[in-house]
Structures are given as structure tokens and as C-alpha cells.
Design brief:
Elements (H helix, E strand, L loop, with lengths): L4 E4 L9 H17 L3 E3 L13 H14 L3 E5 L6 H11 L3 E4 L16 H14 L5 E2 L8 H20 L3 E5 L13 H8 L2 E5 L1 H14 L1 H13 L1 E2 L3 H20 L4 E4 L4 H6 L4 H9 L4 E2 L4 H13 L6 E9 L6 E6 L13 E3 L9 E5 L3 E11 L2 E12 L7 E6 L3 H10 L5 E5 L4 H11 L2 E4 L4 H8 L3
Parallel strand pairs: 1-2, 1-3, 3-4, 4-5, 6-7, 6-9, 8-13, 9-10, 14-17, 16-19
Antiparallel strand pairs: 11-12, 11-18, 12-17, 13-14, 15-16, 15-18, 16-17
Helix pairs in contact: 2-3, 3-4, 5-12, 5-14, 7-9, 8-9, 9-11, 14-15
Length: about 475
């Protein structure tokens, strides 16, 4: 599970009640501790532990940078000092959460202690002037359910942004010739998003496999893992090759400092080691190292973002959109040759032969039903976006490989969106609703959220705390 660290910079303005601002600084910090949220305060910067003095801003920024905060939390403990909030946010360059506690009833004489809501309006405008994207959590009380929900969603957004800004993908061999759909612009990904690729040739992988077999210890452990967690239907020497491939890919991922893998899964690999890599992919996917097929770099990026949105608690699965459901009007088959993580399956997966290929090494299992998020980061002609939406697993005919029949709101609308692009026949699914988190994260990573169902107002309402 990912742990995010917030920079906690409660703010006030001089013409409103300083004692009440100090009170809410303490109450908010207590609530963060109660929720188990990791944060860095500014109690050592000044006596009040509040952001209100221009001379303190640089000190606060330096402290937060030194502590490596992943997000900035700006509770307005009274009206707040909007320009200091904006300067601090601009300096840090991390996601920003703007919030203030709901104001109490005015005093009998008409006096108001905080005017928090008014201050939030001011800070939102100044953040826009500074071109700082921010997340707004509705004006509410500390014990309102929306407070906890909003904080946890923001932490997930921070995790997506942190992941996106440090992506490095191990690319094993070039894309298969026939897959023009999975071409990507490596230079543009680096220049625009700092997404780095570490390409290696196929012989480097096969040499690593040989080294794994010679060393033996990790190989034996992996073979034991396979026999325990899979219903093995292939030969012993083929199981050894699956295990060796999984260990080799994990070691190369670590060697090159990568977080995900995109592999040319066919057909040169089969000539070298005699197996499909699907089950080995599944093993790494289960470990939280996404491995995608057909050297789909954009697919690997998607997998990392989806898992980050789920706070790395739930494994994702890389799938093809394939055919319509024969009986359900808005049904669709999500399937791939067998690379899905074991925890996604609703049954013990078989280690066997894949659909349409003669070599062993793929898993066969139907995935769990239930609600899923489906997503795809993609782009062409210099424009990038994220297709995302919801679906639910449903019953359907028996399939090959790893598969899940899903039902969406309108398959024709989704189908047209994929065909017209910039998307392809690949997507990533996860058994968790991460649509609002990914939608919100798009504003920080500079891409367009593209919902395949007309649910944008519903997503915005959720993010508003409704």
C-alpha cells in the first residue's frame, strides 16, 4: 500500500480571529492523526504554526521539500492569506488540496470569527492566476464523512501524480511488426512527461534467463510458487522456463530501475525459449510490477496509473476489447492470452496453452465479476488523453486465456470512441472505482480525461462532496 505525505500549511489572515485559527489548526491536525494520515506541520516555523507571514513562506517551502511531501494541504483556519498559499503552491509544484472548516453561527452582536468560505473563494482565484492546479474539498466540518473521503481521494490523486512523474518502463525488444497500433513517440513521452523507456534487445533477456537457471535458488522458489498457485497442465521443463522468465524479467526491471515492463511477447520469444510469456507476466503483475503485451508502452503507463489510483492495494489486468456479448446488448468480452494476476481470477488458474498459439505458458481463468474501472492512456498527433469509465462483470460463454465478460451503459458509444481514437484495442481494468481519482489526477499531469459514458457531472458531484 502506498503512503503519501502531506505538507500541512494551515493559513489565516490578520483581520480575523487568530485564536480561532490556532484552535482549528490544532483540531485539524488531530483529525489527520486520527485518520492515520502522514503529514509535516509548520509548528517550528512560527509560534502559531500558521501560514500568514511572507517571511515564513520560503522556510516552509524548504522544509516541505526536504521532507519530500507528495501534496500540499491548505486548511483555511480563518479567511487565510491567499497570495501566500499561491506562492507556496507554485514553489512546491505538487498537488494542492484547498479546504476550510464550515463557519459557525455569527456571534449575537453580528461578529464573524473566520469567514472561511470567503477566503476559499479568494485563494481559488489567486491559484488560477498563478496557474497552479488544485483540488477543492468542500467547506465542511472535520467529522463529516466527506472530509475523510476527500482526503483519501486526494492522497490517491497524489499517488497517481507521483507515479506519473517518475515512470520508467523496461521495453523488452521492439514492438511486433504487425502491431502498428502500439507504436509510441518515445522522445515526446520524455520531453512532455518525463516518461523514460529502457529498451533492451531480446538476447539480453535470454542471457538473463540462462543466468537464473545457473544460479538455481530463485528458480526453485518460483517453481514452487507456480505449483502452489496454478493448476499446472504443461511439462516440467516448460514450467522451469516460465519460472526462469519471471525471475529474469523481475531482475532486469530492478537492474534498470523500472516500474513496469512492455514485452514483445510473440513471436521471436517463442523461438528463443519455447514458451509464451503470459504466465510469467501474470506472476510479476501479481507482485505489483505491471507487465503488458505486444510492447504496448501506453498500456504500461495506464497500468501504473490505475494501480496508483487504487493506492497499490488492488491488482489491475491488461486486456483486449474483443467481441460483443452474444446475449447481453451492451456486453463485451475482455480477454488476453493469459497474463492476468492470480488475485484477479475467481478460480485457480490453469497453466496451459493459449488461444491461437502452439506454445505453452499462458493462464486460463475467468476473472471475478463485480464493478470494475476500465481505462486507457493514449495519444497520437501530439494529443494525449485518458479514456475511462465503469463496467460490471457478468455471466457469459466460457472463454480461453484470462477473460471477463462486462456490461457497459452503451457499447455502441464506447465502440465508436475507441475506433475514432486515439485509443486502441487494449485497456486496463481494476476491481475498484477509481474513476473520480483518475479524472482529478488528469488536471495535474496535463492530459484530458475522456469519459466513455456521460457521467462527468456525476463525477464532479462526487468530487464536490455530494
Amino acid at each position: 500500500m502506498a503512503t503519501m505525505k502531506l505538507g500541512y500549511a494551515p493559513t489565516r489572515r490578520s483581520i480575523f480571529s487568530a485564536p480561532d485559527a490556532i484552535k482549528y489548526r490544532g483540531l485539524t491536525a488531530d483529525r489527520l492523526r486520527e485518520l492515520g494520515i502522514d503529514f509535516v506541520d509548520i509548528d517550528d516555523i512560527n509560534e502559531e504554526g500558521l501560514l500568514y507571514d511572507d517571511n515564513d513562506m520560503k522556510k516552509i517551502a524548504a522544509k516541505f521539500k526536504a521532507e519530500g511531501v507528495d501534496g500540499l494541504f491548505l486548511p483555511h483556519c480563518n479567511f487565510g492569506t491567499e497570495y501566500l498559499c499561491a506562492r507556496l503552491a507554485k514553489e512546491l509544484g505538487v498537488p494542492v488540496l484547498l479546504w476550510g472548516p464550515l463557519d459557525e453561527r455569527p456571534e449575537p452582536n453580528g461578529e464573524r470569527l473566520r469567514d472561511t468560505q470567503c477566503g476559499l473563494f479568494a485563494t481559488g482565484k489567486v491559484l488560477r492566476r498563478f496557474r497552479v492546479p488544485f483540488t477543492y474539498m468542500t467547506n465542511c466540518r472535520l467529522n463529516d464523512p466527506v472530509f475523510e473521503r476527500g482526503l483519501r481521494d486526494f492522497l490517491a490523486v497524489c499517488n497517481v501524480v507521483k507515479t506519473f512523474r517518475s515512470i520508467r518502463i523496461l521495453q523488452i525488444a521492439p514492438r511486433p511488426f504487425d502491431f502498428w497500433t502500439t507504436m509510441c513517440n518515445e522522445g515526446e513521452l520524455l520531453e512532455r512527461f518525463n516518461i523514460q523507456l529502457s529498451p533492451i534487445p531480446m538476447p539480453e533477456l535470454t542471457e538473463e534467463i540462462k543466468a537464473v537457471k545457473e544460479e538455481g535458488t530463485k528458480l526453485a522458489q518460483m517453481i514452487a510458487y507456480i505449483n502452489k498457485n496454478m493448476d499446472v497442465k504443461i511439462k516440467e521443463n516448460e514450467v522451469e522456463n516460465v519460472a526462469a522468465l519471471a525471475v529474469a524479467m523481475e531482475q532486469l526491471t530492478e537492474k534498470y530501475g523500472c516500474k513496469a515492463v512492455a514485452i514483445q511477447c510473440w513471436n521471436a520469444l517463442q523461438g528463443e525459449i519455447g514458451i509464451m510469456p503470459c504466465a510469467a507476466n501474470a506472476i510479476l503483475n501479481e507482485k505489483g510490477i505491471p507487465v503488458v503485451c505486444e510492447t504496448d508502452i501506453h498500456g504500461a503507463i495506464t497500468s501504473l496509473l490505475v494501480e496508483a489510483a487504487g493506492m497499490d492495494e488492488t491488482r489491475s489486468f491488461f486486456a483486449d476489447w474483443t467481441i460483443r456479448h452474444p446475449d447481453i446488448e451492451n456486453g463485451e468480452l475482455l480477454q488476453h492470452c493469459g497474463p492476468w494476476p492470480i488475485s484477479v481470477a475467481q478460480e485457480k488458474p490453469q497453466l496451459t496453452y493459449p488461444l491461437a498459439f502452439d506454445h505453452p505458458g499462458s493462464l486460463t481463468a475467468e476473472a471475478k465479476h463485480g464493478d470494475v474501472t476500465l481505462c486507457r492512456f493514449d495519444g497520437d498527433n501530439g494529443e494525449y488523453s485518458m479514456l475511462l469509465g465503469r463496467a460490471k462483470g457478468v455471466e457469459g460463454p466460457k472463454g480461453m486465456g484470462t477473460y471477463l465478460w462486462v456490461e457497459v451503459e452503451n457499447i455502441k458509444r464506447l465502440e465508436t470512441k475507441i475506433v475514432e481514437g486515439p485509443y486502441i484495442h487494449h485497456c486496463v481494468g481494476i476491481h475498484k472505482d477509481v474513476v473520480p481519482v483518475l479524472y482529478e489526477a488528469c488536471k495535474y499531469i496535463g492530459i484530458k480525461p475522456d469519459l466513455y459514458d456521460p457521467i462527468e457531472e456525476d463525477v464532479k458531484a462526487y468530487l464536490r462532496g455530494e
